User: Which sequence fits this backbone?
């Protein structure tokens, strides 16, 4: 039986995006030759996406009109030049040198049976020397990637920041997929446990891309003082205003947290039993608030931190309504640092409790 959706692309990145959206599809490689229209990046991606769609339709056969065909084309645009896929490693090095230290635009056209939607994102490269370029090329195969790079594979080595759709930079924006009704409809409301403003700033765009109506829930009784709690709450409130979403603040009760979480575990190392119990404590409060307020799903911004193993956070609570999204993936942490800087959000230097502060101080003493 022929699947109801064909992806007319051999790109593993596009396939990954569709799989992550829960979409069933099969892959057809097309014979369409990619062309470039100098000075016109939008026409270039549009015509290439349409050509791939026509090629796949011809291969599939006109009698299977009930099967939809999705095709796409991506290019990098910088300084009036179109960067497609490099023909060899020397050209890949040339591309990376030219993009080094600069901001470029990524254009992707997606076509569903001839309907075309074009999405643009901006990417800022770090200033790269030849050694850094060689290191990147040794880790990533740049030949089949527009602009000779992949933001989702060792992108932190070369990318300083980006704006717009992350998936668009990978090769297929999520927004058109949702608009065409190809993705499974997400529950309308989700409650996001916000450990702090900066972390939530990277999680909210991802949830919005998935079609969720996001409400932040600031619940952090682990924080060691009311003064620090209020500083972080103010940052979360500033983010909520910037994102145009609601924020619910939980009651601050550090004494209860000390009794229910930290008691007997005061000397545990960071990432040890106390932290696991703390994850569970905050997630249970989020789950209970989600049930009370009738949210379809809940999740947490804790997973965006490179210092917190997502698998441990996911294992701390089993609930069918817990969306176990690893926000540090797809450049989430990089997005959060850039967004927090843009909004001027307060970024704390320790996790929250007095024990994490003590651990940080001890590390500092060791490094003197």
Assistant:
């Amino acid at each position: 039986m022929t699947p109801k959706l064909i992806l007319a692309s051999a790109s593993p990145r596009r396939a990954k995006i569709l799989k992550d959206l829960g979409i069933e599809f099969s892959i057809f490689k097309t014979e369409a030759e990619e062309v470039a229209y100098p000075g016109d990046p939008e026409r270039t991606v549009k015509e290439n996406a349409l050509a791939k769609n026509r090629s796949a339709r011809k291969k599939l056969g006109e009698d299977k009109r009930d099967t939809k065909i999705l095709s796409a084309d991506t290019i990098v645009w910088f300084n009036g030049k179109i960067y497609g896929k490099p023909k060899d490693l020397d050209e890949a090095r040339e591309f990376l040198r030219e993009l080094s230290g600069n901001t470029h635009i990524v254009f992707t056209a997606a076509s569903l049976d001839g309907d075309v939607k074009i999405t643009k994102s901006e990417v800022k490269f770090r200033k790269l020397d030849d050694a850094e370029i060689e290191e990147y090329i040794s880790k990533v195969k740049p030949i089949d990637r527009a602009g000779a790079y992949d933001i989702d594979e060792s992108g932190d080595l070369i990318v300083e920041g980006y704006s717009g759709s992350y998936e668009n930079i990978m090769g297929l924006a999520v927004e058109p997929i949702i608009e065409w009704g190809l993705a499974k409809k997400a529950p309308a409301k989700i409650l996001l446990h916000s450990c702090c403003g900066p972390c939530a700033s990277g999680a909210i765009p991802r949830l919005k891309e998935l079609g969720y109506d996001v409400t932040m829930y600031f619940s952090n009784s682990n924080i060691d003082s009311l003064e620090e709690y209020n500083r972080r709450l103010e940052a979360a409130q500033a983010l909520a205003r910037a994102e145009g979403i609601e924020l619910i603040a939980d009651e601050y009760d550090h004494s209860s947290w000390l009794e229910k979480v930290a008691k007997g575990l005061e000397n545990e190392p960071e990432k040890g039993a106390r932290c696991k119990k703390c994850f569970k404590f905050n997630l249970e409060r989020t789950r209970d608030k989600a049930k009370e307020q009738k949210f379809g799903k809940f999740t947490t911004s804790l997973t965006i931190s490179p210092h917190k193993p997502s698998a441990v956070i996911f294992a701390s609570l089993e609930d069918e309504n817990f969306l176990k999204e690893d926000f540090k993936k797809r450049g989430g942490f990089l997005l959060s640092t850039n967004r927090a800087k843009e909004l001027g959000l307060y970024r704390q230097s320790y996790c929250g409790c007095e024990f994490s502060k003590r651990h940080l101080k001890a590390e500092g003493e060791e490094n003197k």
